[in-house]
Amino acid sequence: MEIIIGNTALAIGLIFGLAALGTGIGFGLLGGKFLEGAARQPEMAGMLQTRMFIIAGLLDAVAIIGVAMALLLMFGNPLLGQLG
């Protein structure tokens, strides 16, 4: 029982950390490519900005799904039901 709880806590920490790391890297790349595209063609900056915000929302959604999975493991661990 303690091994499952300990491994679950480790998994939760990894999920939170990797979700934050992945989102940070994604936003960094997205912002850099947006600035590069806007500098090359300033007349398309409005269209690029709209698309950047759509992609930013999708990028946030991926991290939020990871956090939801971690919260599921934290508060309603399905692995504990397998012991009984």
Automatic annotation (TrEMBL):
One of its GO terms (cellular component) is proton-transporting ATP synthase complex. The chain crosses the membrane at residues 12-32, 53-75. GO terms for molecular function: lipid binding; proton-transporting ATP synthase activity, rotational mechanism. PROSITE patterns: ATPASE_C. Belongs to the ATPase C chain family. Key component of the F(0) channel; it plays a direct role in translocation across the membrane. A homomeric c-ring of between 10-14 subunits forms the central stalk rotor element with the F(1) delta and epsilon subunits. F(1)F(0) ATP synthase produces ATP from ADP in the presence of a proton or sodium gradient. F-type ATPases consist of two structural domains, F(1) containing the extramembraneous catalytic core and F(0) containing the membrane proton channel, linked together by a central stalk and a peripheral stalk. During catalysis, ATP synthesis in the catalytic domain of F(1) is coupled via a rotary mechanism of the central stalk subunits to proton translocation. The keyword Membrane applies. Keywords: ATP synthesis, Cell membrane, CF(0), Hydrogen ion transport, Ion transport, Lipid-binding, Membrane, Transmembrane, Transmembrane helix, Transport. The lineage of its organism: Bacteria, Pseudomonadati, Pseudomonadota, Gammaproteobacteria, Chromatiales. This is ATP synthase subunit c. It is a multi-pass membrane protein. Pfam families: ATP-synt_C. Its main location: membrane. Gene3D superfamilies: F1F0 ATP synthase subunit C. Residues 10-73 form the V-ATPase proteolipid subunit C-like domain. It comes from the Bacteria. The keyword Membrane applies. The record marks D60 as: Reversibly protonated during proton transport. It is found in: Cell membrane.
